[in-house]
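Checklist before submission:
- one chain only
- standard amino acids only
- sequence pasted in full

Submission:
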Amino acid sequence: MTDITRLDQNARRSRAVIHNGTVYLAGHTADDRDADVAGQTRQVLAKIDEMLAAAGTDKSKALNVTIWLQRMADFHAMNEVYDAWIAPGHAPARCCGAVELAAPDILVEIMVTAAL
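Returned file contents:
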C-alpha cells in the first residue's frame, strides 16, 4: 500500500495530496479579490509556489496546470503573469477555460499537478 499525505486539510478538502511521487494541488484563488486578474494571478501563483515547496517540489516539476477564468477577456492579462512564472524549458501541459467560479470577485483559479 502506498502512503497518501494530505496537506492543509479540513473536512471538505486538502490543499495538496501527495501520492506515489505526485503532488495534486487543489484549486487556488487570490486572497485580495479587489485586485485585477493580473494581481489575482500573481497571488495565486505565489500560493502555488508555497504549497509546492511544502510538498517538497517546485514549479519546474509541474506536469499539468488547469486555469479557470471568470471571463476569457482576461486571458491575455493572465498569460502575461503566467508566462513570466513558468520555469524556462519546463512548461507543463495546460488548459484554460472560462467557468462560473465560486464567487463573483474571483477572477482566476489555478490547479497544478507536479512530480516530487
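Reviewer check: The helical segments are 37-55, 75-85.
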